[in-house]
Amino acid sequence: MNMDPALNQFKTFQFKIEKLSRSTLLQAELLRDKVFTQIDRKEKASLIASIDKDKFSHVYEDNEIKEMQYWVVIDKVNLKLIALTGLYTEKEDNAESCWLGWFCVDDEYRKKGFGKELLNFSINQAKELSKEYLHIYTYNSLEHRVAIDMYKKYGFKEYNVKITKYKQDLYFKRDI
Prior knowledge:
The chain is of the alpha+beta class. It has a domain at 5-126: Gcn5-related N-acetyltransferase (GNAT) (Aminopeptidase). The chain has 7 helices and 7 strands. The protein has helices at 5-12, 22-35, 41-44, 46-51, 57-62, 114-128, 145-153, and strands spanning 15-19, 65-75, 80-90, 97-105, 133-139, 157-163, 168-175. The protein has a 7-stranded mixed beta sheet, sandwiched between helices. Strand 6 (157-163) and strand 7 (168-175) form a beta hairpin. It is globular, with a radius of gyration of 16 Å.
């Protein structure tokens, strides 16, 4: 049997996936900000708001979000946060849809299978929430090309492109 070397390497890592918490928040924000460099103030507050919805209800309102939850991947040997993912629903979404949010892997851990594992985890979380569709919003850039290619391999289809002053936003959707 011919195994993908990246997946073999992935299996040698000791890691855990856990819900975002106050103790992992700072590392998650640092990773997110390193990967996603063009974030507005309203979007930046989403991670902390997901931990304490009552205290940060204004963030839900400002971003027109109904629900959001995030998870982090921790390297158990180095005690380092190495990846982030989340799911959220916008106010205008129907009950069958949700969005993938802040999906990213630290540079040092890329090309080792974490992105694939994390995307599978995210899809399974959406299934557990009884969602039928998973949407992804990303930027059309060289930095995000590997992720875009992975989304396409996982059956995500591009359905919208929005051109803004500084970037091109891509929207993908996948049946779950």
